[in-house]
Amino acid sequence: MSTISSKSPVVVVVGSANIDLTSYARRLPEGGETLMGDSFSEGFGGKGANQAVMAALAGAEVHFIGSVGDDQFGKALISNFQHYGINTSGINIAETSSGIAHIWVDESGENRILIIPGANGTISTEDVERNLAAIPHIDFIIGQCEIPQSATFSAFLAGKARGATTILNPAPYQSLADKLLALTDWLIPNESEFALLDKFSRLPESKLVIAELRPEKNLIVTLGEEGAALALPNSTVDYIESTKVRSVDSTGAGDCFIGSFTAALGLGLNPHEATNFACQCAAISVTRKGAQASYPSMEESANLIATL
After folding, report:
1. pLDDT tens sequence across 122-138
2. Which of 90, 83, 96 is CA-nearest to residue 130?
3. How far apart are the first and last CA of the chain?
4. Sign of the C-alpha dihedral, residues 228, 233, 235, 236?
5. Which class is 10-27+38-307 in CATH?
6. Which residues are catalytic?
7. Report field, pTM of the whole predicted structure over 0.90
8. Nearest of 267, 289, 283 to residue 58 by alpha carbon
Protein backbone atom coordinates (compact mmCIF):
# COMPACT_ATOMS: atom_id res chain seq x y z
CA MET A 1 0.00 0.00 0.00
CA SER A 2 1.13 3.57 -0.69
CA THR A 3 2.36 5.73 2.19
CA ILE A 4 -0.43 7.84 3.69
CA SER A 5 0.33 11.53 3.98
CA SER A 6 -0.04 13.15 7.40
CA LYS A 7 -1.08 16.39 5.69
CA SER A 8 -4.68 16.83 4.61
CA PRO A 9 -5.09 17.58 0.89
CA VAL A 10 -6.91 20.82 0.06
CA VAL A 11 -10.04 20.05 -1.96
CA VAL A 12 -12.24 22.77 -3.42
CA VAL A 13 -15.71 21.72 -4.52
CA VAL A 14 -17.43 24.13 -6.89
CA GLY A 15 -20.99 22.92 -7.08
CA SER A 16 -24.52 22.54 -5.86
CA ALA A 17 -26.14 22.31 -2.44
CA ASN A 18 -29.74 21.12 -2.03
CA ILE A 19 -32.23 20.10 0.57
CA ASP A 20 -33.33 16.52 -0.15
CA LEU A 21 -36.99 15.66 0.35
CA THR A 22 -37.09 11.87 0.17
CA SER A 23 -40.10 9.55 0.01
CA TYR A 24 -39.79 5.78 0.38
CA ALA A 25 -42.32 3.30 -1.01
CA ARG A 26 -42.52 -0.39 -1.93
CA ARG A 27 -42.95 0.67 -5.53
CA LEU A 28 -43.21 4.05 -7.22
CA PRO A 29 -46.43 5.26 -8.87
CA GLU A 30 -46.99 5.16 -12.61
CA GLY A 31 -48.32 8.19 -14.47
CA GLY A 32 -51.71 9.22 -13.05
CA GLU A 33 -51.46 6.71 -10.20
CA THR A 34 -51.61 7.51 -6.48
CA LEU A 35 -49.98 5.19 -3.93
CA MET A 36 -49.40 5.21 -0.19
CA GLY A 37 -45.75 5.52 0.73
CA ASP A 38 -43.84 4.05 3.65
CA SER A 39 -41.82 6.95 5.09
CA PHE A 40 -40.42 10.43 4.45
CA SER A 41 -37.18 12.19 5.39
CA GLU A 42 -35.63 15.61 4.94
CA GLY A 43 -31.87 15.82 4.58
CA PHE A 44 -28.90 17.56 3.01
CA GLY A 45 -27.85 16.88 -0.56
CA GLY A 46 -26.79 18.36 -3.87
CA LYS A 47 -24.02 16.66 -5.81
CA GLY A 48 -21.43 19.26 -4.90
CA ALA A 49 -22.35 19.29 -1.22
CA ASN A 50 -22.39 15.50 -1.05
CA GLN A 51 -18.94 15.26 -2.60
CA ALA A 52 -17.60 17.94 -0.26
CA VAL A 53 -18.93 16.16 2.83
CA MET A 54 -17.48 12.80 1.82
CA ALA A 55 -14.10 14.33 1.00
CA ALA A 56 -14.06 15.91 4.48
CA LEU A 57 -15.05 12.61 6.12
CA ALA A 58 -12.19 10.90 4.26
CA GLY A 59 -9.62 13.32 5.61
CA ALA A 60 -9.43 16.30 3.25
CA GLU A 61 -9.46 20.01 4.06
CA VAL A 62 -12.50 21.11 2.07
CA HIS A 63 -13.65 24.49 0.76
CA PHE A 64 -17.07 24.83 -0.84
CA ILE A 65 -17.87 27.42 -3.49
CA GLY A 66 -21.53 27.71 -4.42
CA SER A 67 -24.78 29.52 -3.76
CA VAL A 68 -27.71 28.98 -1.41
CA GLY A 69 -30.99 30.84 -1.06
CA ASP A 70 -31.91 33.60 1.35
CA ASP A 71 -34.18 31.26 3.29
CA GLN A 72 -34.21 28.79 6.18
CA PHE A 73 -32.93 26.02 3.91
CA GLY A 74 -29.94 28.18 2.97
CA LYS A 75 -29.06 28.80 6.63
CA ALA A 76 -29.39 25.07 7.35
CA LEU A 77 -27.14 24.14 4.41
CA ILE A 78 -24.37 26.46 5.60
CA SER A 79 -24.68 25.16 9.17
CA ASN A 80 -24.41 21.59 7.89
CA PHE A 81 -21.19 22.35 5.99
CA GLN A 82 -19.72 23.89 9.12
CA HIS A 83 -20.70 20.81 11.12
CA TYR A 84 -18.34 18.80 8.88
CA GLY A 85 -15.55 21.37 9.16
CA ILE A 86 -16.00 22.60 5.58
CA ASN A 87 -14.96 26.19 4.85
CA THR A 88 -18.07 28.15 3.81
CA SER A 89 -16.55 31.55 3.04
CA GLY A 90 -17.08 30.88 -0.69
CA ILE A 91 -20.86 30.46 -0.40
CA ASN A 92 -22.99 33.22 -1.90
CA ILE A 93 -26.44 34.07 -0.49
CA ALA A 94 -28.80 34.60 -3.44
CA GLU A 95 -32.13 36.41 -3.32
CA THR A 96 -34.03 33.30 -4.36
CA SER A 97 -34.93 29.88 -2.96
CA SER A 98 -32.33 27.27 -2.12
CA GLY A 99 -31.99 24.21 -4.33
CA ILE A 100 -34.43 21.38 -3.68
CA ALA A 101 -34.32 17.72 -4.71
CA HIS A 102 -37.48 15.59 -4.62
CA ILE A 103 -36.38 11.95 -4.33
CA TRP A 104 -38.45 8.78 -4.60
CA VAL A 105 -36.90 5.49 -3.51
CA ASP A 106 -38.42 2.03 -4.07
CA GLU A 107 -37.90 -1.13 -2.02
CA SER A 108 -34.90 -2.22 -4.13
CA GLY A 109 -33.06 1.01 -3.30
CA GLU A 110 -33.42 2.46 -6.80
CA ASN A 111 -34.28 6.15 -6.94
CA ARG A 112 -35.87 8.79 -9.14
CA ILE A 113 -34.89 12.42 -8.56
CA LEU A 114 -36.34 15.77 -9.63
CA ILE A 115 -34.11 18.78 -8.93
CA ILE A 116 -35.22 22.41 -8.61
CA PRO A 117 -31.87 24.29 -8.95
CA GLY A 118 -32.90 27.55 -7.27
CA ALA A 119 -29.84 29.42 -6.02
CA ASN A 120 -27.48 26.87 -7.58
CA GLY A 121 -28.18 28.42 -10.96
CA THR A 122 -27.04 31.87 -9.86
CA ILE A 123 -23.33 31.23 -9.26
CA SER A 124 -21.24 33.33 -11.64
CA THR A 125 -17.73 33.08 -13.05
CA GLU A 126 -16.85 36.19 -11.05
CA ASP A 127 -18.00 34.49 -7.82
CA VAL A 128 -15.84 31.47 -8.60
CA GLU A 129 -12.73 33.41 -9.55
CA ARG A 130 -12.93 35.70 -6.51
CA ASN A 131 -13.41 32.88 -4.01
CA LEU A 132 -10.73 30.64 -5.52
CA ALA A 133 -8.23 33.49 -5.37
CA ALA A 134 -8.84 33.75 -1.61
CA ILE A 135 -7.69 30.16 -0.99
CA PRO A 136 -3.90 30.08 -0.46
CA HIS A 137 -3.25 26.56 -1.77
CA ILE A 138 -5.39 24.12 -3.77
CA ASP A 139 -4.65 20.45 -4.53
CA PHE A 140 -7.93 19.40 -6.19
CA ILE A 141 -10.99 21.04 -7.71
CA ILE A 142 -14.17 18.99 -8.12
CA GLY A 143 -16.98 19.98 -10.48
CA GLN A 144 -20.33 18.53 -11.58
CA CYS A 145 -23.24 19.62 -13.80
CA GLU A 146 -25.74 21.06 -11.29
CA ILE A 147 -24.41 24.62 -11.66
CA PRO A 148 -23.75 26.67 -14.82
CA GLN A 149 -21.02 25.02 -16.87
CA SER A 150 -19.34 28.39 -17.33
CA ALA A 151 -18.68 28.51 -13.57
CA THR A 152 -17.10 25.05 -13.62
CA PHE A 153 -14.93 26.00 -16.60
CA SER A 154 -13.71 29.14 -14.79
CA ALA A 155 -12.88 27.04 -11.72
CA PHE A 156 -10.92 24.48 -13.73
CA LEU A 157 -9.09 27.16 -15.71
CA ALA A 158 -8.02 28.98 -12.55
CA GLY A 159 -7.20 25.73 -10.78
CA LYS A 160 -5.02 24.37 -13.56
CA ALA A 161 -3.10 27.66 -13.64
CA ARG A 162 -2.26 27.02 -9.97
CA GLY A 163 -1.29 23.38 -10.44
CA ALA A 164 -4.47 21.81 -9.07
CA THR A 165 -5.83 18.46 -10.27
CA THR A 166 -9.32 18.75 -11.75
CA ILE A 167 -12.04 16.12 -11.34
CA LEU A 168 -15.32 16.29 -13.27
CA ASN A 169 -18.42 14.25 -12.51
CA PRO A 170 -20.64 14.76 -15.63
CA ALA A 171 -23.90 14.46 -13.71
CA PRO A 172 -26.68 15.11 -14.19
CA TYR A 173 -25.60 14.72 -17.79
CA GLN A 174 -25.42 17.65 -20.15
CA SER A 175 -23.42 18.22 -23.31
CA LEU A 176 -19.90 19.17 -22.24
CA ALA A 177 -17.81 21.83 -23.94
CA ASP A 178 -14.57 20.55 -25.46
CA LYS A 179 -12.67 23.28 -23.63
CA LEU A 180 -13.96 21.99 -20.28
CA LEU A 181 -13.01 18.39 -21.09
CA ALA A 182 -9.55 19.58 -22.13
CA LEU A 183 -9.06 20.99 -18.62
CA THR A 184 -10.37 17.84 -16.91
CA ASP A 185 -7.69 15.57 -15.42
CA TRP A 186 -10.14 12.92 -14.15
CA LEU A 187 -13.51 12.29 -15.78
CA ILE A 188 -15.80 10.08 -13.66
CA PRO A 189 -19.16 9.18 -15.28
CA ASN A 190 -21.52 6.33 -14.42
CA GLU A 191 -22.69 3.83 -17.04
CA SER A 192 -25.50 5.90 -18.52
CA GLU A 193 -23.39 9.05 -18.60
CA PHE A 194 -20.62 7.11 -20.33
CA ALA A 195 -23.03 6.12 -23.11
CA LEU A 196 -24.04 9.75 -23.57
CA LEU A 197 -20.39 10.78 -23.78
CA ASP A 198 -19.44 8.00 -26.21
CA LYS A 199 -19.68 9.07 -29.87
CA PHE A 200 -21.38 5.77 -30.72
CA SER A 201 -23.65 5.86 -27.64
CA ARG A 202 -22.21 2.59 -26.37
CA LEU A 203 -22.50 1.37 -22.81
CA PRO A 204 -19.18 0.57 -21.06
CA GLU A 205 -19.59 -3.17 -21.65
CA SER A 206 -16.00 -3.98 -22.58
CA LYS A 207 -12.48 -2.80 -21.83
CA LEU A 208 -12.05 -1.82 -25.48
CA VAL A 209 -15.08 0.48 -25.44
CA ILE A 210 -14.00 2.07 -22.16
CA ALA A 211 -10.44 2.62 -23.36
CA GLU A 212 -11.61 4.42 -26.50
CA LEU A 213 -13.47 7.21 -24.70
CA ARG A 214 -10.42 9.07 -23.34
CA PRO A 215 -7.24 7.22 -24.34
CA GLU A 216 -4.86 9.98 -23.29
CA LYS A 217 -6.62 11.09 -20.09
CA ASN A 218 -7.67 9.58 -16.76
CA LEU A 219 -11.11 7.96 -16.69
CA ILE A 220 -13.13 6.07 -14.10
CA VAL A 221 -16.53 4.58 -14.92
CA THR A 222 -18.61 3.75 -11.87
CA LEU A 223 -20.52 0.50 -12.37
CA GLY A 224 -22.89 0.37 -9.42
CA GLU A 225 -22.74 -2.89 -7.49
CA GLU A 226 -20.04 -4.16 -9.88
CA GLY A 227 -17.55 -1.54 -8.70
CA ALA A 228 -15.65 0.63 -11.17
CA ALA A 229 -13.47 0.53 -14.27
CA LEU A 230 -10.20 2.45 -14.10
CA ALA A 231 -8.58 3.59 -17.35
CA LEU A 232 -5.23 5.38 -17.09
CA PRO A 233 -3.52 7.03 -20.08
CA ASN A 234 -1.94 4.52 -22.48
CA SER A 235 -2.67 1.65 -20.10
CA THR A 236 -5.03 -1.31 -19.84
CA VAL A 237 -8.45 -0.93 -18.24
CA ASP A 238 -8.71 -2.48 -14.79
CA TYR A 239 -11.90 -3.49 -12.99
CA ILE A 240 -12.09 -2.71 -9.27
CA GLU A 241 -14.70 -4.83 -7.52
CA SER A 242 -17.06 -3.49 -4.89
CA THR A 243 -18.16 -5.25 -1.73
CA LYS A 244 -21.46 -7.06 -2.31
CA VAL A 245 -24.16 -5.59 -0.10
CA ARG A 246 -27.95 -5.34 0.09
CA SER A 247 -28.89 -1.91 -1.25
CA VAL A 248 -31.38 0.12 0.78
CA ASP A 249 -30.99 3.53 -0.88
CA SER A 250 -28.54 4.39 -3.67
CA THR A 251 -29.07 8.17 -3.36
CA GLY A 252 -25.72 9.97 -3.29
CA ALA A 253 -23.59 6.84 -3.78
CA GLY A 254 -21.88 8.26 -6.85
CA ASP A 255 -21.06 11.45 -4.95
CA CYS A 256 -19.70 9.37 -2.10
CA PHE A 257 -17.38 7.72 -4.63
CA ILE A 258 -16.14 11.06 -6.04
CA GLY A 259 -15.44 12.65 -2.65
CA SER A 260 -13.69 9.64 -1.16
CA PHE A 261 -11.63 9.00 -4.31
CA THR A 262 -10.39 12.59 -4.39
CA ALA A 263 -9.41 12.61 -0.73
CA ALA A 264 -7.65 9.25 -1.09
CA LEU A 265 -5.58 10.48 -4.04
CA GLY A 266 -4.62 13.54 -2.02
CA LEU A 267 -3.61 11.41 0.95
CA GLY A 268 -1.12 9.56 -1.25
CA LEU A 269 -2.97 6.45 -2.39
CA ASN A 270 -2.31 5.43 -5.98
CA PRO A 271 -5.25 5.45 -8.44
CA HIS A 272 -6.00 1.74 -7.97
CA GLU A 273 -6.00 2.02 -4.19
CA ALA A 274 -8.04 5.22 -4.28
CA THR A 275 -10.62 3.61 -6.57
CA ASN A 276 -10.84 0.57 -4.31
CA PHE A 277 -11.34 2.82 -1.27
CA ALA A 278 -14.05 4.79 -3.08
CA CYS A 279 -15.86 1.58 -4.06
CA GLN A 280 -15.90 0.44 -0.43
CA CYS A 281 -17.19 3.80 0.79
CA ALA A 282 -19.97 3.80 -1.82
CA ALA A 283 -20.91 0.23 -0.86
CA ILE A 284 -21.37 1.33 2.74
CA SER A 285 -23.50 4.29 1.67
CA VAL A 286 -26.10 2.21 -0.21
CA THR A 287 -26.81 0.13 2.89
CA ARG A 288 -28.16 3.23 4.69
CA LYS A 289 -30.92 5.71 3.92
CA GLY A 290 -30.24 9.20 2.66
CA ALA A 291 -27.30 10.84 0.92
CA GLN A 292 -24.81 12.46 3.31
CA ALA A 293 -26.42 10.68 6.26
CA SER A 294 -25.43 7.36 4.71
CA TYR A 295 -21.72 8.10 4.28
CA PRO A 296 -19.00 6.35 6.29
CA SER A 297 -17.83 8.36 9.28
CA MET A 298 -14.30 9.69 9.73
CA GLU A 299 -13.50 6.65 11.87
CA GLU A 300 -14.96 4.23 9.33
CA SER A 301 -13.08 5.96 6.51
CA ALA A 302 -9.79 5.79 8.39
CA ASN A 303 -10.33 2.11 9.17
CA LEU A 304 -11.07 1.37 5.51
CA ILE A 305 -7.89 3.07 4.36
CA ALA A 306 -5.90 1.12 6.93
CA THR A 307 -7.16 -2.20 5.52
CA LEU A 308 -6.29 -1.54 1.85
Report:
1. 999 999 999 999 999 99
2. 90
3. 7
4. positive
5. alpha beta
6. 255
7. yes
8. 267
